[in-house]
Amino acid sequence: MVDTHTNQAVPIAPLPHRTRSVAGGLALLLSLVALMGLGYLWYALSYQAHILGLNVGQRLQSQNQAINALSLSVAGLNRTDLQTQQAIKALARHVKAVHGGRGAQRRWRLRAAQDLLLIANDQLRFEHNVPLALLALHQAEREIRRQNSPRLLPVRLAIVQEILRLRAADKQHISTMALELVALARAVPTLPLAVPADFRAHPPKAPVRAVKLPFWRRLAHGLWRDFTSLIQFHKQIIRQPALLAPKRAYYLRQNLQLRLYAAELALLEHHTAVMRANLLTAQRWINRYFDKDAPGVRAVGAKLQTLQTRATTLAWPDISRSLHLLRQLAQKTS
After folding, report:
1. Rg (Cα) of the chain, in Å, rounded?
2. Phi and psi (nearest 5°) for 270?
3. C-alpha closest to that of 285 among 184, 137, 209, 160
4. pLDDT at 156 > cutoff 50
């Protein structure tokens, strides 16, 4: 130690022995504590690492097991998916085959309905066969109803309307004409036959009062009467109908009635040509064998003429709209 006043070194007194021993003990104690702390820390860290290692191993093992199970599940799902795809493909082929069969059946039914509607139109237009036309319309409506397709509803509606109109027209025309033919047939026995003029009964002439004439006038009148009886003049030739025997007259009336009943039957069966032929024959027999001047004969002849006209102008409804609609739908779907 240096003294600042004298600039001389001052010697340091040594520390006591006790102080040095306490400091060494404290240092040793602190070293032991630090060593123990480090040992405890090492032990704790080693134990925690061991525990963590055990946990990680168990977790890794469980995860490996889960991964293996998941792999097995995925493989099973892949097999199931493959089987499902195969089943779906088989089902699709089956559905396609079924739809193809149903499509062919549907097309066949539409074709059958179209043919039935064509038959109905032909029977009504050319044959005037209303029952067969109605039957064909009903069958066509049944075939279309089996389709269960909303697109065909307008066609079904048109067919139902045509059936109703055809039934109404059938009743309106045929019933009245059939009754008129029956009435004409029953009136035939009351119609008078034509009688030649020579055989007709003439009303008795009033007696002529005899007037006494001079001789020369009676002579001149007699000569003139004898002369005029030798020569006769006729302006036109009048053909007198032949007088029928009672047996022939009976058969004539019966045949005329049969003609009228045959016309009625042809009307009910919608054979217009046969009906007209029978009416024409009846009209010809009426004009030839019956008294045309009688009121009853004139009425029967006029009615026969009216029936012939109505038979030629029978107006049936148009039933072709349903056929046109069905053809349009067939063209759109094809």
Report:
1. 65
2. 65, 35
3. 184
4. yes
Largest CA distance in the chain: 243
**Least trusted range by pLDDT, from 222-226, 256-260, 301-305:** 222-226
Give the start-to-end residue ranges of the domains of the chain.
107-168+319-333
Torsion angle of the four alpha carbons 184, 186, 188, 190, in this order, in degrees rounded to the nearest 10: -120
pLDDT beyond 80 at 295 = yes
- Cα–Cα dist 49/54, whole Å: 8
Give per-residue pLDDT as tens, 192-246.
888 654 444 445 555 556 566 677 777 777 778 777 776 665 555 555 455 566 7
Average pLDDT, the chain: 77
